[in-house]
Specification:
Chains A, B: GO terms for molecular function: chloride channel activity; chloride:proton antiporter activity. Chains A, B: It is found in: Membrane. Chains A, B: Belongs to the chloride channel (TC 2.A.49) family. Chains A, B: It holds the Pfam family CBS. The structure is a homodimer. By secondary structure, the first copy, chain A, is mainly alpha-helical. Chain A has 3 domains: 267 residues, CBS-domain (Roll); 217 residues, Clc chloride channel (Orthogonal Bundle), CATH 1.10.3080.10; 240 residues, Clc chloride channel, CATH 1.10.3080.10. Helix content of chain A is 53%, strand content 8%. The first copy, chain A, contains 28 helices and 18 strands. In chain A, the strands form 8 sheets. Chain A has a 3-stranded mixed sheet. In chain A, strands 13-14-15 form a 3-stranded mixed sheet. A two-stranded parallel sheet of chain A has the order 1-18. In chain A, helix 9 packs antiparallel against helix 10 and helix 16 runs antiparallel to helix 17. The longest helix of chain A is centred in the N-terminal third of the chain and has 51 residues. Chain A starts with a helix and ends with a strand. Chains A and B meet through helix 3, helix 10, helix 11, helix 19 and helix 20 of A and helix 3, helix 10, helix 11, helix 19 and helix 20 of B.
């Protein structure tokens, strides 16, 4: 039972593991042969049974009630990205052939691609915004029409029904798209992009189809009135755009433009994906610097000046494009006042200033945000476990999404119905959708406005509406309702982000906090008077409490509010929220990453891990090849399911004794596959000279979807041939001595974005291999260093 | 002759080499024994003669007229920082003894220190600002009094004389301080901090005395009316504060607070210095994010999330402190409108918007800025060469500074005299110092204002004054005069920055550009109407053309203007300026770094360097020690001036044959010195057990000023003893095989901040050592890869 459940955890919360369903044909072959890790230490694992056996199989873990135990596992199904260039002879020859001018051309194409990434990401943001606004407007019109018509007849239930049906329909379309066409497009996509930037290859995450489903899905869920935002998905969209544009071809569309072939490797692609993610953040929040810092915070290990500069360029272009087209759309070209999808409005220091003695108050708000955020994460964690357990059928998922949509509508309606918070209708008011409902003429229902607005507008309204706009009770009820809706919504099989709901919840209780303050200390001075800044701090606290981002979030919020003097309080609030929240549970994205058992590498090794050395963490024994190896051996090793390695040290054996040979290179599974496919065999008749020499292009053409070993037919004759690996292996892999401490290994591994680190003894003989999972297994638990188990789930 | 000149290049442009003068006693011992580089390849170097001999001594280079040839050299006098921890047994034992709680305490102290750095940096900025403003006010009063008195009497020359004398006196005090007390405090300090963050140990750069001289010096030079700014020096000041605070002691004051002892090593110190530099930028420009990016751009190689976050904290605290105290000083507590020393004023997108078709214009301005910047740098380069050649006596330097001050006053006066740009005196005008001079009543002389204002205020005025405030001719003359004064001033023996003069020059011609545009196309539309945005772009272009910073400068300018929509044009302008400028000459700071022959590592290896391998770049042969080595041998090696290495591989010899042994560790000169000082010898009677075991504390106490080998007396008896290096050496140094390509070596070296990288053969025998200079020697010249020579100058 437990096994089933653990196996079925997948990104979207949908039940079918990504690698097992019929629709994953394109990938399954590769995946089954492609799990990169040595299981030397896991000799008891039985792959056929697909259970979560581990070396030290704990009987307790088999109890069905022990669902959360799978977070103590690291899945072996994820491969790593090859961020380290394989500097083999082919590569070096190509580099040496290139003139300074060609390097300059390459650099220019990198800039061009980044500009293109920014442009396309900005356009996608525009498209989403325009369509959502159009649909929301239509919906409002229809509902308003009915409400106006039936309010006096008492037939409100018809309006409610209409509203609920409209919302559910939208959401149904979105959920069907996601559940049946591309489950990886569910959610905000930020956890997946975090993993990708961290160096983990998440299947299907940067494909064109994912992008299409994501964009349509997010439009449907926002238009469907769910408690979601369209900002998170922009980050994913930007990343997909980047991965697509930079490769100069679409594997899905079977179209190869024959450009940018140089960039067809993981190193370059990951760099461009960072730029895409940054462009997405930039378009979402109008925060180009925040975007850059997001990419750096999540992805960077090695600081590359030119890369950062290009990322910044993509971000700038993205926010500029959005700004440019949105101002044209709104009929005010050239005003450039819409840098992002969400516009917090400017906080001018002259109007909304804060004082030194307010900082402790802000810190208290940060702590509240941390608590509420932890509560949100815990609830969502349980809900996700529940979903994994019982809601793994697609139709169930679609139905749940529709249910949430209907409940959202019903709750909103109920609150509007029972609230009597009437506010005078002001001229030039920010409310685009005032609903009179049961209010007197010339007034509008504030609660209705809060629910009918797009969440973005509600946030701005909470920040900037003058004191007295909102009734405290309205705010309290709204906070509660929206909190419950938001935690229920996150993890549904729809494309949607959690940024805006978090900001909205926080802004609501933050404003409430501000109002209560001014009620408690009415006469003190006028500095409490504006609850807008408390709304801002509350929003920061709540968002920080949920996602636990720090540096980039501060900058995003500072950029979005356009006021640098708010930097310090926002930073303090976010830090407090993170510290308080981390005491209970990690951030929402990390919870979901953990539920996926992704081998995520944090930026530093656990503090107390100096006890461990490379000898203890490495996997051994290692399957190695000789420089000149028999084809049959290679095919057998690659085909063996028990040794699904992805990188193989190449050694020179000094004698015939059993001891391992001296390291002279490292070759990847993908390279061997290409070699086998092109039958680069030696000593097989003399016709070999006629054969075209294998070029880097052949490797690039096969990238990134290398065929599985099973698809390559090697005849019995060919099995007897030899393969010369010398030209294709990386002759200078990084190595460490076996007594190197874990932090040192970790630093080297992370700084260079390695995939395999060879452990050698004092005469350079291979004794082990350190891979991502070997490092990711160690983490700081409540009681010091803890070790996770590895599993094929 | 050429030798003399090359030898005498030093940071301040003053003639005495840092290591030769009598006042460098404290350092000279260490330096003479401390140059870290192997000179295996430089067997012909004769250290006694102090000439610039190199292996391939070119006779052409000896011609006296060939001054600039020394920029093809790399000096061997600079040591590198040990950014890589030496994970020896002592270190590992300490780390392993520490509980998770102690790691948490360490982390908290890091945060505390960063807060303190921010606070102190902010206070220093306050102090400078207040004192400068006070002195400038006094000076204006005095001069205005005389001008008012004598204008009608025709005795203007008296006023001029008074003005010139006042200015010269201020500057004289500043110049004397710098020239006679701490020459390293000259200039902006940014090149030095760049080098430090790059990993080069610049002598005396982070000492308390340097800070004191820097602060007093900058006050004097700004008050003395030189064409300088006080922003650059803030970065240096922040760095010194950081280096001081983080060590918990002052070596100069001989005071040890016995705190923060854990941080007494290069790794931690360099991290704190990054925070200090960021805090300095933040205080100078009110740009905390810009500060972080400055530190990252200049210093970071390995991205460390927690470190970045702490740097950001220091920056925030710094700008907040400045803001807080300045608002109190100005009598408006709580308004927080002074985030930085320079305040550009807010560019509101509603008022000063730009349009798509203006972007090409901005790019043209960027090109102009690049050209003018290159001109500035070339002129300053020649001037610096001239100074090195003829102005190396201290009194000459002081006199030159005074001359510049007097000329600055005279030029200003002349321009005020001949200009008749009278502007009506407006109420609430930004001009704090209106001078009527020959204007009608109710008017003031615009040129006089431009010269009398602090440069910061002039910049703001150029950005924000309404159209028509400045006469085009005034602007043109002002640009010319200020350009000449600024290039003459930079490199004087005074503490002063180049940011503000650059901004001012650029703002002046930028505004002129805007005015000309509106004259050329008068009727087109109102978008040209405000020349303020052209002033901003001009300022960006000029500054970018001179200093060639990119990412951080964009963010600094965006933060200082408070408008994110200007981000893209500013970025494009800076990029254009950099591209155009780089075609002619590198950035001003880089010019000065090159003139110092500092082995500066850029962020990436030259593009076409795949031809080279570790075998070609490494230094060999390498002096190695055995695990248990005779004291006499160690003393001899350390004392030998011909092998002034700083790191020694420790090897195990398999046999008695002559071939080098297998690598088993790496030990630093500084560690050996401490070992010798504490006489950690074995096999010397049995009394050894009584001896206290050497602890990490002993190494920390000696840090950073390890005594020279000459100061350690080793008796003839002791020379026969043995020393066991095993406990103290780093047992897991990073290694590369000899066929590793240069870019790969470079990446490893830079990513981990290494000082020594051991090159080994296929059985782990030491065959060479790669150090900073070996990598810094290669750079892209006009004709492809070029190699620099190494010299002891």
């Amino acid at each position: 039972m437990a096994n089933n459940i653990a196996k079925k955890v997948s990104w979207s919360g949908e039940g079918t593991p990504l690698l097992n369903g019929a629709e994953e044909r394109g990938y399954s072959g590769q995946a089954s042969g492609g799990s990169m890790f040595h299981i030397g230490r896991m000799s008891t694992v039985d792959l056929e049974e697909e259970t979560i056996n581990t070396e030290e199989l704990d009987p307790v873990k088999l109890r069905p009630s022990e669902i959360p135990h799978n977070e103590k596992l690291l899945s072996l199904k994820y491969e790593s990205l090859d961020y380290d260039n394989s500097e083999n002879q082919l590569f070096l020859e190509e580099e040496r052939r290139m003139s300074p001018m060609s390097f300059r051309c390459l650099e220019i194409s990198r800039w061009f691609i980044c500009g293109l990434i920014g442009l396309l990401t900005g356009l996608i943001a525009c498209f989403i915004d325009v369509v959502v606004e159009y649909l929301a407007g239509k919906k409002y019109e229809a509902v308003k029409h009915y409400i106006d018509k039936f309010t006096e007849d008492g037939g409100l239930s018809v309006s409610l029904l209409l509203w609920a049906i409209l919302n559910s329909t939208f959401v149904m379309v979105g959920a069907i798209l996601v559940a049946f066409f591309e489950p990886i497009a569910a959610g905000s996509g930020i956890p997946q992009i975090k993993c990708y930037l961290n160096g983990v290859k998440i299947p299907r995450v940067v494909r064109l189809k994912t992008l299409l489903v994501k964009v349509c899905g997010v439009i449907c869920s926002v238009a469907g009135g769910l408690a979601v935002g369209k900002e998170g998905p922009m980050i994913h969209s930007g990343a997909v755009v980047a991965a697509g544009v930079s490769q100069g071809r679409s594997t899905s569309l079977k179209k190869d433009f024959k450009i940018f072939e140089y960039f067809r490797r993981d190193t370059e692609k990951r760099d461009f994906v960072s730029a895409g993610a940054a462009a997405g953040v930039s378009a979402a929040f109008g925060a180009p610097v925040g975007g850059v810092l997001f990419s750096l915070e999540e992805g960077a290990s090695f600081w590359n000046q030119m890369l950062t500069w290009r990322i910044f360029f993509a971000s700038m272009i993205s926010t500029f494009t959005l700004n440019f087209f949105m101002t044209i759309y709104k009929g005010k070209p050239g005003e450039f006042s819409n840098p992002g999808l969400i516009n917090f409005g400017r906080f001018d220091s002259e109007n909304v200033e804060y004082n030194l003695y307010e900082i402790p108050l802000f810190i208290v708000m940060g702590a509240i945000g941390g608590l509420l955020g932890a509560l949100f994460n815990v609830l969502n964690y349980w809900l996700t476990i529940f979903r994994i357990r019982y809601l793994h059928r697609r139709c169930l998922q679609v139905m749940e999404a529709m249910l949430v949509a209907a409940v959202s509508a019903a709750v909103s309606f109920a609150m509007i119905y029972f609230s009597s918070d009437c506010q005078p209708l002001k001229k030039n008011s920010q409310e685009e959708y005032p609903l009179q409902l049961f209010c007197a003429d010339g007034e509008y229902n504030a609660m209705a406005t809060a629910f009918f607005n797009t969440p973005e507008k509600s946030v701005t309204s909470l920040f900037h509406s003058p004191p007295g706009t909102y009734n405290p009770l309205t705010l309290a009820l709204f906070t509660l309702a929206y909190f419950l809706l938001a935690f229920w919504t996150y993890g549904l099989t729809v494309s949607a982000g959690v940024f805006i709901p978090s900001l909205l919840i926080g802004a609501a209780w933050g404003r409430l906090f501000g109002i209560l303050l001014s009620l408690l200390f009415p006469s003190k001075n006028t500095i409490w008077a504006d609850p807008g800044k408390y709304a801002l701090m509350g929003a920061a606290a709540q968002l920080g409490g949920i996602v636990r981002m720090t540096l980039s979030l501060t900058v995003i919020l500072v950029e979005a509010t356009g006021n640098v003097t708010y930097g310090l309080p926002i930073m303090l609030v976010l830090m407090t929220a993170k510290i308080v929240g981390d005491y209970f549970i990690e951030g929402l994205y990390d919870v979901h990453i953990r539920l996926q058992s992704v081998p995520f590498l944090h930026s530093e090794a656990p503090a107390t891990s100096h006890w461990l050395t490379a000898r203890e963490v490495m996997s051994s024994p290692v399957t190695s090849f000789n420089k000149i190896e028999k084809v049959g051996t290679i095919v057998d090793v690659l085909s063996a399911t028990s040794t699904n390695h992805n990188g193989f040290p190449v050694v020179v054996n000094s004698g015939t004794d059993n001891e391992s040979g001296r390291l002279c290179g490292l070759i990847l599974r993908s390279q061997l596959i290409v070699l086998l496919k092109h039958k680069v065999f030696v000593e097989r008749m003399r016709s070999q000279q006629n054969r075209r020499r294998l070029q880097l292009k052949d490797f690039r053409d096969a990238y990134p979807r290398f065929p599985p070993i099973q698809s390559i037919h090697v005849s019995q004759d060919e099995r007897e041939c030899l393969m010369d690996l010398q030209e294709f292996m990386n002759p200078t892999p990084y190595t460490v001595p076996e007594e190197t401490s874990l932090p040192r290994v970790f630093k080297l591994f992370r700084a260079l974005g390695l995939r395999h680190l060879v452990v050698v003894d004092d005469v350079n003989r291979v004794i082990g291999l350190v891979t991502r999972k070997d490092l990711a297994r160690y983490h700081m638990g409540k009681h010091g260093l803890e070790e996770m188990d590895l599993a094929h789930a």
